[in-house]
TrEMBL record, chain A:
CDD domains: SLC5sbd_u4. GO terms for molecular function: transmembrane transporter activity. Its main location: membrane. The chain crosses the membrane at residues 6-24, 44-70, 76-96, 116-134, 146-167, 179-198, 243-265, 277-297, 370-397, 418-436, 442-467, 474-492, 512-533. It is found in: Membrane. One of its GO terms (biological process) is carboxylic acid transport. It comes from Nesterenkonia sandarakina. This is Cation/acetate symporter.
From TrEMBL, chain B:
The chain crosses the membrane at residues 32-52, 58-88. This is Putative solute:sodium symporter small subunit. InterPro entries: Na_symporter_ssu. Keywords: Membrane, Transmembrane, Transmembrane helix. It comes from Nesterenkonia sandarakina. NCBIfam families: Na_symport_sm. Pfam families: DUF4212 (PF13937). It comes from the Bacteria. Residues 22-98 form the Sodium symporter small subunit domain. The lineage of its organism: Bacteria, Bacillati, Actinomycetota, Actinomycetes, Micrococcales.
Length: 558, 108
């Protein structure tokens, strides 16, 4: 066993032990605990749990590398995946919390109609599943790369630990393990980032000091045939309009993803939901503000390391990572002249985006324990997101579908609990299967889940809260046309499901179409709602009531 | 100072409960929300995307300003916006007596 493997085992076993202890201590007996942790989660803990839930294996491992090569246009992910929280905290969280209950489809059902609820439940399951598969595969890959385990065993091991705390503790167990997982992943992300910033610039604050290296990074990038880091609209083919639409789609999608929204149901009060939104974005921002700095520093180190070198005299980390297939060197050239992150580019040195974070301790020459910590951080990111998604799947399947369609009345508390746990178990089994045999289209579809969430959930939630006259037929028509429009354009421009890819219309990429889909949904919903009968008095009264945190008492202020 | 000080418990039959405070509360909430969302749009879509190229001519600590807004500045502002919203809503809730406080006046 190498020193790196020893430390990786050490940190993985230590952190998994912590998760299991927390899971055992927060096991639950009632459905209210299982689905929404008895609405008793403190705001700070809820914020950390939302952050861990949100930041997936892709955020942790892939994003910095993606930004390093996209340069300025990497901002679509940075702004898109944080700006959505402003919408969530101001437009959705307090009102959905006031309304209460267990799931997002449940709100939709009570606000609009039972048939809209079923559509929403199915959409929640599909969106969450495309995500969860990526997490399971991501966890398996971390195991295989750092520990030499097979991917299959990695996936099974991850699933067993998640099974333990998700089935025992439901939302409560998941929330408190996520708090621990957030702590692990943020430490693992920040330590190498601060160390690399200090080594390169003498200032250990990467968010501030990466400005100093940008000029050098630009000229080196051009030398190796890459775009300049600081030049706007050079990383994405669609230019300004595409950057605008992709950012907007990611923001609207973030505010429409069921596994994030449902976390705001777990706070004690409406006020708690507002502050949870603040803490969540604060914790997320710690990683997202660091990611572009990690990308810039690591790319600079990488390019400096290979500048003027031949294939035989490259830095050590390239040899270490070559067996994983994440780094490919053209052995026939004298010196490395071109670098790329695209496998088919034909460049002399081809590096996968993921390597920039995974190998950053080695590229920066940091000691073995930090490499081990990095692996534990990647695992924490993958597991926390997977657990949150599995809860949405099991609650939509049991609470919104099974007890609404198959067994409408007379289910005892005990029976509901049992069905919830069985649904969770089945979801995990399915996730293991899909994680080991990821369907070919999953990797592509995950990136588009946001567009679909933006075009389906976001408009019906917003209008449901802010417009009393929005009704069931309007919501159903809006959601279906929004989804159909968005999915059609994605299939038209992408090679998924065996269809050929066509050119983008007006430079709109398939990642950006969700914003237009949301506008279509909104328009159709308003028109249909106006043409049909308004919702019942009872529903309008409910919409009125969610505006006020509680019934009015004498004002407290003097 | 509070605009509800002379309402509420000051007599009158219970069925004639004054609900005009509801509109005023909601209007204040919406005004705050729209102001904060205008800032949200300006720093991200405005400075970070639409005006990024002219702003990039200004360089501070090595960062072209447009790039800084797109990758750092907008995110700092987002965090502050949510905090301001939560704090400000506490004040509005208290002003209208709908804050989630227990009988001792502390938050639940």
């Amino acid at each position: 066993m190498t020193e790196t493997q020893f430390w990786t085992f050490f940190f993985i076993i230590l952190t998994f032990g912590i998760y299991i202890v927390i899971a055992w201590r927060s096991r639950v007996k009632e459905t209210k605990e299982f689905y929404v942790a008895s609405q008793g989660v403190p705001t700070l803990a809820n914020g950390a749990a939302i952050a861990a839930d949100w930041m997936s294996a892709a955020s942790f491992i892939g994003m910095a590398g993606l930004i390093a090569f996209l340069g300025s246009d990497g901002s679509v992910y940075l702004m898109g995946w944080t700006g959505g929280y402003v919408l969530l905290a101001l437009l959705l969280a307090p009102y959905l919390r006031k309304w209460g209950k267990f799931t997002v489809p449940e709100f939709v059902g009570e606000r609009y109609s039972e048939s809209v609820r079923i559509v929403a439940a199915v959409a929640a399951i599909v969106v969450s599943f495309t995500y969860v598969v990526g997490q399971m595969a991501g966890g398996g890959i971390v195991f295989s790369r750092f520990l030499g385990l097979s991917i299959e065993w990695g996936v099974v091991l991850v699933a067993v630990v998640i099974f333990f705390y998700a089935v025992l503790g439901g939302m409560k167990g998941i929330t408190y393990t996520q708090v621990a997982q957030y702590t692990v992943l943020i430490i693992a992300y920040l330590i190498p980032a601060f160390a690399v910033a200090y080594q390169t610039t003498g200032i250990p604050v990467p968010q501030i000091s990466y400005g100093q290296i940008l000029t050098e990074l630009d000229s080196l990038s051009v030398e190796f045939g890459l775009n300049e880091f600081t030049e706007a609209f050079s990383g994405r083919a669609g230019g300004q309009i595409d950057v605008f639409l992709v950012t907007l789609s990611l923001m609207l999608g973030t505010a429409g993803l069921p596994h994030v929204i449902v976390r705001f149901y777990t706070t004690k009060t409406v006020r708690g939901a507002r502050y949870s939104g603040f803490w969540a974005l604060f914790f997320i921002a710690l990683l997202y503000l660091t990611a572009p700095a990690v990308g810039a520093f690591t790319k600079l180190n990488l390019l400096q390391g290979v500048q003027g070198q031949g294939p035989d005299s490259l830095p050590d980390w390239i040899n270490t990572w070559a067996p994983t297939g994440l780094v490919t060197v053209n052995e026939d050239v004298e010196t490395i002249g071109t670098v790329s992150n695209i496998a088919t580019s034909g460049a002399d040195l081809i590096v996968n985006n993921d390597i920039l974070v995974l190998a950053s301790p080695e590229i920066g020459g940091l000691p073995a324990p930090i490499v081990g910590l990095m692996a534990a951080g990647g695992m924490a990111a993958a597991m926390s997101t997977a657990a949150g998604l599995l809860l949405v799947i099991s609650s939509a399947a049991s609470h919104d579908l099974y007890f609404r369609v198959f067994k409408k009345t007379g289910a005892s508390e005990k029976e509901q609990m049992m069905v919830g746990r069985i649904a969770m178990g089945l979801a995990i089994l399915f996730a293991i299967w899909a994680g080991i045999n990821p369907p070919a289209f999953v990797a592509q579809v995950v990136a588009f889940a946001f567009g679909l969430a933006a075009a389906s959930f976001f408009p019906i939630l917003i209008l449901g809260i802010f417009w009393k006259k929005a009704n069931g037929p309007g919501a159903a028509a809006g959601m279906l046309t929004g989804l159909a429009f968005t999915a059609t354009y994605m299939i038209y421009t992408l090679e998924v499901f065996g269809t050929g890819a066509n050119d983008h219309i007006l430079n709109v990429s398939p990642e950006g179409i969700g914003a237009i889909g949301a506008a279509v949904n909104l328009t159709v919903m308003i028109v249909v709602s106006k043409l049909t009968a308004p919702p019942s008095e009872h529903v309008q009264e409910m919409v009125e009531e969610i505006r006020y945190p509680q019934t009015r008492k004498a004002p407290v202020r003097s | 100072m509070s605009d509800v000080a002379h309402e509420g418990t000051s007599g009158g039959p219970p069925e004639a409960e004054d609900t005009s405070w509801r509109q005023r509360y909601w209007k204040k909430n919406l005004r705050l929300m729209i102001t904060l969302l205008a800032i949200w749009f300006t720093v991200s879509f405005g400075f970070g995307i639409l005006l990024i190229e002219p702003l990039n001519n200004i360089v501070i600590l090595g960062f072209p300003l447009g790039l800084w807004f797109a990758q750092q500045g907008s995110i700092y502002v987002f965090v502050i916006l949510i905090l301001v919203y939560a704090l400000w809503m506490d004040r509005i809730d208290d002003e209208f007596g709908v804050a989630e406080r227990n009988d001792e006046g502390g938050y639940k």
